[in-house]
Amino acid sequence: MASFYPYLISSLPSLLFGMRPPFPYDILLDKCRNFIPVKDFDLLSNLPASDSVSIDNVRQPTVKGWIYFDTALRNELVKLRSVRRHVEAQKYLRSDIYTGPAIAHIALAAQRNPSIQEGEKFLDGERWKALDELSCGHYFDLDALIVYAYKLRILERWELVRLADKKELLEKALTIN
C-alpha cells in the first residue's frame, strides 16, 4: 500500500504560508483513508499538538522533531513572559529542552512586535520554516504527509482568525466585568 504515497501526495495542492487552506483537515483525512496503511492513517488522524503531549511519548521522528521545536519555542516564550511579569518560569516550562540561541531570537522578535496578531503570525511563519526543514528529503512518504497536515492546521488557524467577527469579539472584550 505504500506505493500509493506518490499518487496521494502529488494530488494534494501546494501550501503556502498565509494562503487560505484549500480544504479542511477532515477532507485531508478522507483523501488519505484509502491510500495509506491503517497505522499511518491512525497516526495522521491523531497528530499530537505540542502543548498536549510529552516529547518522551512520541516515537515517529518527524512528529518528534515538530514537538521538540514547538515545545522549545513555547518554553522560550514562557521565559520571556515570566521575566516581564516577575514570575518564576520553571513551573510553566513543558520539559527540559535546550532551546538554543536561534529559538531565543525567534521568541524575542515575536515578543517585541507591537501587534499581538503580527507577533503570532511571525511565530507561525517560523513554525512553517521548521516544518520545511523537517520535510527535507521526504517527498512521497508518511513524513511528507505529516508535515503537510501540520501546515494545513496552521492555515486553518489563520482562517479562523480571518473569519472571526471582530466587532462581536471587541464588544465581548469591552463588556467583561
Overview of the structural elements:
The structure is a single chain. The protein is an all-alpha fold. The chain has one domain (2-175). It is 63% helix and 0% strand. Helix 4 (61-85) crosses helix 5 and helix 4 packs antiparallel against helix 6 (116-134). The longest helix is centred in the middle third of the chain and has 25 residues, at 61-85. The chain is globular and about 55 Å long. The termini are far apart. The mean pLDDT is 90.
State the distance separating the first and last CA atoms. 57 Å
Name the average pLDDT.
90
Q: Using the CA coordinates, give the radius of gyration.
A: 18 Å
Shape: globular
The biggest beta sheet reads:
none
What is the count of β-strands?
A: 0
Query: What structural category do the secondary elements indicate?
Result: mainly alpha
Amount of helix: 55-70%
- Detail the poorly predicted runs: none
Order of helices and strands: HHHHHHHH
Number of helices: 8
- Provide the number of structural domains: 1
Report strand %: under 5%
Offer a few descriptive terms.
177 residues; mainly alpha
Question: What layout of secondary structure does this protein have?
Answer:
Layout (H helix, E strand, L loop, with lengths): L4 H7 L13 H8 L5 H8 L15 H25 L14 H13 L3 H19 L7 H22 L2 H10 L2
Helix pairs in contact: 4-5, 4-6, 5-6, 6-7
Describe the structure concisely.
With 177 residues, the chain is an all-alpha fold.
